[in-house]
Amino acid sequence: MSASAMRIALVGNPNCGKTALFNQLTGGRQKVANYAGVTVERKEGRFLAPSGRTLHILDLPGTYSFDATSPDEAITRDVCYGRYPGEAPPDLIVCVADATNLRLHLRFVLEVRRLGRPVVLALNMMDAARRRGMVIDVDALSRRLGVPVVETVAIRRGGAQALIQRIDTSVPAIEPADIDNAGIEQLHAEVRSILADTVTLPRDTAAVDDAIDRWVLHPAFGLLILAGLMFMIFQAVFSWAQPVMDGIQAGIAALGTAVTGFLPEDSALHSLLNDGLFAGLGAVLVFLPQILILFLFILVLEESGYLPRAAFLLDRMMFRVGLTGRAFIPLLSSFACAIPGIMATRSIQDPRDRLTTILVAPLMTCSARLPVYTLLIAAFIPDRTVWGIFNLQGVVLFTLYFAGIFSALLVAFVIKRLRKDRSEHALIMELPSYRLPNVRDIGLGLWERALIFLKRVGGIILALTVLLWFLSSFPGPPEGATGPAIDYSLAGRLGRLLEYVFAPIGFNWQICIALVPGLAAREVAVAALGTVYAMSGSDDAVASQLGPLIAHSWSLATALSLLAWYVFAPQCMSTLAVIRRETNSWRNVAVAAGYLFGLAYLASLATYQIARALS
Amino acid sequence: MRLSDAPKGAKAVVQSVTDAHPADPIAQRLRDLGFVSGEPVRLVARGPLGGDPLLIQIGSTRFALRRTEADRVMIAVDGAA
Questions:
Q1: Which of A16, A316, A326 to probe the B interface (max B CBs under 10 A)?
Q2: How much is the pLDDT for B79?
Q3: A17: phi > 0 → left, psi -120 to 50 → alpha, else beta; which?
Q4: What's the CATH code of the domain at A18?
Q5: Is the Cβ of A100 closer than 8 Å to some Cβ of chain B?
Q6: Are A312 and B68 in contact (CB < 8 Å)?
Q7: Which residue range forms the structural domain that includes residue A143?
């Protein structure tokens, strides 16, 4: 083993700051937040030490014990024991412990000791520990544990300096001690004795945590605060974004006119740029502000430590319907995107709870649905105030989100009923200390989200839009044809064919065409509608006018039916692929796709027929 | 007394964790988390719906435990035997 290839693993209890340290060392940008189970995968990075050596740093999921109870904990156990496929055990273990939570975290340090590999203990969150008036005798702690101990503040620039110096020099292997063979009671007794000798602790918890929790976890106010918070998010997504969206829309329209102005009106290039690019991509790009506002709220909630509290408040209800409070965080992430949401279910211990959560996660309204919802709501729902304070459009959006949540609960309940294994499900969830969200982290998180969205627009959405433009343009109309050219194209014919299936739920052939590329990603449907309508003859139809255009040509029943379709339909191949990867079963993919399409069709059928009967 | 029956806010000391069935992983995890004989615990809050789950403080850590989980932990409340 050469010194240049030294491999260092970061291990420790959940939510002690391993990933923040990893980012600090490697310059990485892995997700950090304030709840147990953010990291569910093994992540690798490189770090060039001051001595010039390259160190390989492994970031591992947090675990309370090597006696793993969930898939993410098993990864950490396997890597540390050298059982992880294709990977030698790490040369050095950096055991990270939350200095404010040593009573719990030191026991795991003693467990890591038993591996007999070189260990360095990083006492993280030392800033918070000092604020609480804790005094830790680091030298004495190091002597008692038999491992080098350094202090770190992973979220502060330069906060890992002591750790860097320590791991850059050689760390001695551990001397075996009696404690390595002790039982669980003795381990805890040892921790108590070490703490008594090395740590002065004025009080067990931060006073501010107690004060906030008295309100936030209050039986009545707690639920009210949670409901108010959720409702405020949806109102904000609609009302705050509007001015910026108007600006983007005007910008795209101006750019489209400027670029295509030089081209002859009847050329193919003019059509590709105007109908394909500006009408298609522009229609999607407009939704960036809304997506960022949604993420702003999610990121702030994640960093604050509130999410596990919400899980606590809702556990009983979620348990009743066959889920678990632990499912709250994966399901909330699914409001951003079902893919990270489904991956986050790895922190759910019970395999039954995990599968149920995975199957209902696509029902949470992901940010890719926002463009579809907003387009239709803005076109068909009047922008007026109801009951004095609420915006009607915001209320409809909230209803759509709620429909997703409600059906997820219903589906989970059905799954629970169908299940034969009725043995006990575990919760056991840690509630972290509150933390003030870091403005820089939130900013970086939003920046990453914006990049991801723009990459989607410039990648898959662009490719499909151009492809759709070709399919809608060729073959061209025969001599003497009277209707719009798209009627004779491949896409037009396909749309007319699909119309037979979708006519009962009120979809016209333009919607049918848009649904097909919309299978790759939901927002594509909006881009596709933009292109299809631009191709259908209305030459002045650019991005900004897709809304008024459909408001003019669709019935309200059709619009509502399409909204209902999007609450359920699994119009996202990546989600189905991640279900396959996380459950390792095509059967689960078939079950998910089958029930979601089924519900979508039924919901749209009911919506369309009822709306038509009423109007 | 079971931890699940503890009065809210009262200080108590863990006596033991009992396995609900042989090789009970929930009991094992509770012991790993520090629910062992002699450890001080406190019931901080109860969930809003049906008083479930329970918020338990042990050391400086707070855990949400369902009643069925807290049932495994036997405690002695200070001042009462």
A1: A316
A2: 59
A3: left
A4: 3.40.50.300
A5: yes
A6: no
A7: 3-204
